[in-house]
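SEQUENCE-TO-STRUCTURE ENTRY
===========================
What this section holds: a protein sequence and its matching fold, both as plain text.
Question of interest: how does this chain fold, as expressed in C-alpha cells?
***
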Amino acid sequence: MQRNDLKHPAGIEDFLLFRMSKVVALGGGIVTRICEGQFGITRREWTVLAIVARAETIAWSEVGQRCEIDDSRLSRAVSSLAAKKFLRKSHAPGRQVELSLTEEGRQLYAEVFPLARDINARMMEVLDARSAEALEQALAQLHGRGEQVVRDTVVPKARRSRGSSKG
C-alpha cells in the first residue's frame, strides 16, 4: 500500500517544500499586499528593513545570511530602501558595509511591524502552545538539516541558454 505523507510523498503535493511554500504564499501574500499597497515597499525590502531594525546597525553580509538571499537581490533591496530614504549605508573599517535605518525607516518599521505581527498571530492561533512549540522545534531541525543538505549537495551550474545541449 502506497503512503502519501511528508516522509513518503506520492506527488509534489506531498513534498515538504511545496506544502511550506503554500503556507508562505497565503500569509506572505497578505504581507506583500500591505507592504506594496500601503507603504510602497516589496516584501523583500520589508524583510531587509525588519532585520536591520532589530540590529540597529548591522553588516551587509549578516543581513544576507539572516534573510538567506543572494548578494544581487540584497543589493537591489538595499539600493531601493536607500533611495526611498529608509536605509543608510556606511563603510566600516576593513571595507565592510554596514546598514542602519534612517528616522523614516524606523517610522516605517513601527507602522508595518504590528500589521505583520497580526498576520503571524492570526496564522498561529490555530495552534495551541504545545503545537506551537513542536512547530518551533521542527522548523529549527528542518533549517539545520536544510543547511546540511545544501553543503552536501552538488548541483551542476545552471545553463542559461535555452535549447543548449551538453557537450
